[in-house]
Design a protein that fits this description.
The chain has 148 residues and is of the alpha/beta class. 43% of the residues lie in helices and 15% in strands. The protein has a five-stranded parallel beta sheet with strand order 2-1-3-5-4, sandwiched between helices.
């Protein structure tokens, strides 16, 4: 495990408990993780927590990000508005691995209402431990960003 990775994590109220669990888990493993909030289970708007994290991934201040909301969809859609951010909605470890290997995803999005704490931790570790394969996948990744 590369403990030097610059990681960020953020969630809305629906993902708060899972975020806190993953944050504690990663810190126990030795990772340094920047917490973008939310800091309570009170109702909030997920974009307010996604934008700062996605901007830091886009600006290369973070290597990888972890975003969590009820379905994972809202945080994923918001993060993907940033050029260079490749956020992926993940629901099992195989997808967590493939999205890194084939798509060079740099943000994992988790559906808090649909995965257990244990599965979420397994998916995050898989995501962090998997590297991009490059090769034939590189040209595909280069075609993701739409340029006018």
């Amino acid at each position: 495990m590369d403990l030097s990775l610059r990681l960020g994590i953020g969630s809305d109220h629906a993902g708060f408990d899972l975020k806190e669990s993953i944050l504690t888990f990663l810190k126990e493993k030795g990772f340094n993780v920047k917490n973008f909030g939310t800091y309570t289970a009170d109702s909030v708007d997920y974009p307010d927590y996604v934008h700062p994290l996605a901007a830091e991934v886009q600006g290369n201040k973070l290597d990888l990000g972890i975003l969590i909301c009820g379905s994972g969809q809202g945080v994923c859609m918001t993060a993907n508005k940033y050029p260079g951010v490749r956020a992926a909605l993940v629901w099992n470890t195989e997808i967590a691995s493939l999205t890194r290997q084939h798509n060079d995803a740099n943000v994992i999005c988790l559906p808090a209402r649909f995965v257990s704490d244990e599965l979420a931790k397994e998916m995050v570790l898989t995501f962090l431990e998997t590297t991009f394969e490059g090769g034939r996948h590189q040209r595909r990744v280069e075609k993701i960003s739409h340029l006018d």
